[in-house]
Amino acid sequence: MEIELKNVGKRFNRDWIFRNWSATLNPESAYVVLGGNGSGKSTALRVLLGYAPQSEGELLFRIDGKKIDQNQVYKHFSFCSPYLELYEELTLDEMAKFHFSLKPLLPQMDLAHFAEYVHLEASRNKPVKYFSSGMKQRLRLGLALYSDTKGVFLDEPISNLDRFGIDWYRNVVQELRKDRLLIVASNKQTDEYFFCDQKINIEDFKHR
């Protein structure tokens, strides 16, 4: 998966979130979009996902050199954000079964063991609404990282995680990052992007 940006910009009303962003993002590197709270880094991630339209410029998506229509990009990406809604009436096992019916599980993984992968096996039959914020975030991360997708987008991935959860995230993201376009949005917490070799500061694109 490759994303090419040509002078891409996004604004709300008269305020530009970023402008004149040109780059080519591919799986050879892992990327982090850095910025403080309210800086627009999450908006930038949504634009890259195709969830939010850019206000100017051109955004191109390719898989193995073949152009992908922007309206079809969502099929090839998985996304995690602490604000992403879960179906809280479902149990963990039901949530996993539903999610992976839409986006397949990585072929080396077994759906029957998903609860173990996210270290929530004791809660596999519990409705998600009874999960703590940290348990929900681990579930979101597991659904994104274990999906068989070409790209993975993580918005502030260690939000609400305790030290155990952070260490779990660090291990899993290292294990599953190979041959995938991986982009993180972070407010400069290094545990979130320790594996990223390309840093993009959203402030650099605000006043161009």
Automatic annotation (TrEMBL):
Matching Gene3D superfamilies: P-loop containing nucleotide triphosphate hydrolases
Keywords tagged on the record: ATP-binding, Nucleotide-binding, Transport
Organism domain of life: Bacteria
Gene Ontology MF annotations: ATP binding; ATP hydrolysis activity
Xref: InterPro entries: AAA+_ATPase (IPR003593), ABC_transporter-like_ATP-bd (IPR003439), ABC_transporter-like_CS (IPR017871), ABC_Transporter_VariousFunc (IPR051782), P-loop_NTPase (IPR027417)
Domain ABC transporter intervals: 3-208
PROSITE patterns per record: ABC_TRANSPORTER_1 (PS00211), ABC_TRANSPORTER_2 (PS50893)
Protein name as annotated: ATP-binding cassette domain-containing protein
Organism, scientific name: Cryomorpha ignava
